């Protein structure tokens, strides 16, 4: 595959299993508006959170390869499940054979790096998909940097479907949002910082805030990932030179275009054009 990839500069790729990565893309474009981007949502196969490690890895690698074929030298996995279950394998095992000069980055590490400065009680809560919770990626990464912090997590299996099906603002969503927050805080009442460990969850932020005690800081990932990417590009001029800067953004989905446009436009507060592609 290596020999088929273009070496001319190209856009930055942003991948998610569905719409959630748009919350990351938004913040990245706010911080780095001059760059070109390709957003790829695997909406046809969402959610990833309940799938096995093997399947998430397989699907994520397909998406990364597709973005490489489309000219990206740098790909952001704007999906916690993919970052937890596939990122390390792709970085260690696949990139050397595909093209050792290309890079794939995730969203967990940038989120974790900020936590030490935020929590006062040193008790952290993580709300995420079943896959991310099961992977224990957040406790592992947090304890590498901050061994004194206690981490508790709760899987929120209904939250992604609420977002993907445009049900997030309906009254029925309140039950499931309150349920998982209450479960988390009952595990550890000393939690003062809550990580939204899925890129879909900022869409639910108004309701999450409604059921979260006021003293608890809610950490959404977008701004931290954006700042981390900005820092990465400044520290790696060789990669920065491979990222084109015309301020454009293209959208691709594995689902029907109309469905993506309807949902994505509401997240982005703008009308977009999207093309359907297959990853298989």
Keywords:
single chain; 280 residues; Rossmann fold; 2 domains; 10 strands; Asp/Glu_racemase_AS_1; Glu_race; cell shape; Asp/Glu/hydantoin_racemase
Account of the 3D structure:
The chain is of the alpha/beta class and 280 residues long. It has two domains: 10-105 and 221-274, Rossmann fold (3-Layer(aba) Sandwich); 107-220, Rossmann fold. 46% of the residues lie in helices and 16% in strands. It has 14 helices and ten strands. It has helices spanning 21-31, 53-69, 80-85, 87-98, 108-113, 115-118, 130-135, 137-145, 159-164, 171-187, 205-210, 222-235, 237-240, 257-268; strands spanning 12-16, 37-41, 74-77, 103-105, 123-128, 150-155, 193-197, 217-219, 249-253, 274-276. Strands 4-3-1-2-9-10 form a six-stranded parallel β-sheet, with helices on both faces. A four-stranded parallel β-sheet has the order 6-5-7-8, sandwiched between helices. The chain is globular and about 55 Å long. It starts with 11 loop residues before the first strand and ends with a strand.
How are the secondary structure elements laid out?
Blueprint: E1 12-16, H1 21-31, E2 37-41, H2 53-69, E3 74-77, H3 80-85, H4 87-98, E4 103-105, H5 108-113, H6 115-118, E5 123-128, H7 130-135, H8 137-145, E6 150-155, H9 159-164, H10 171-187, E7 193-197, H11 205-210, E8 217-219, H12 222-235, H13 237-240, E9 249-253, H14 257-268, E10 274-276
Parallel strand pairs: 1-2, 1-3, 2-9, 3-4, 5-6, 5-7, 7-8, 9-10
Helix pairs in contact: 1-12, 2-4
């Amino acid at each position: 595959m290596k020999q088929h990839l273009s070496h001319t500069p190209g856009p930055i790729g942003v991948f998610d299993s569905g719409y959630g990565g748009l919350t990351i893309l938004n913040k990245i474009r706010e911080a780095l508006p001059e760059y070109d981007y390709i957003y790829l949502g695997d909406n046809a196969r969402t959610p990833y959170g309940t799938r096995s490690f093997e399947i998430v890895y397989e699907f994520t690698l397909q998406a990364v390869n597709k973005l490489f074929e489309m000219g990206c030298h740098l790909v952001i996995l704007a999906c916690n499940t993919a970052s937890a279950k596939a990122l390390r394998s792709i970085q260690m095992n696949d990139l050397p054979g595909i093209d050792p000069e290309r890079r794939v980055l995730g969203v967990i590490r940038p989120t974790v790096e900020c936590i030490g400065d935020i929590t006062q009680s040193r008790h952290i809560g993580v709300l995420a998909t079943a896959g991310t919770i099961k992977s224990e990626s957040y406790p592992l990464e947090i304890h590498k940097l901050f061994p004194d912090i206690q981490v508790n997590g709760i899987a929120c299996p209904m939250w992604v479907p609420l977002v993907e099906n445009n049900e997030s603002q309906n009254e029925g969503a309140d039950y499931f949002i309150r349920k998982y927050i209450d479960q988390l805080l009952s595990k550890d009442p000393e939690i003062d910082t809550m990580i939204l460990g899925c890129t879909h969850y900022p869409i639910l932020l108004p309701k999450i805030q409604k059921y979260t005690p006021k003293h608890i800081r809610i950490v959404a990932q977008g701004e931290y990932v954006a700042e981390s990417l900005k820092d990465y590009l400044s520290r790696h001029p060789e990669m920065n030179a491979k990222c084109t800067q015309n301020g454009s953004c293209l959208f691709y989905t594995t689902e029907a275009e109309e469905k993506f446009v309807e949902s994505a436009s509401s997240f982005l507060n703008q009308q977009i054009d999207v093309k359907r592609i297959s990853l298989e």
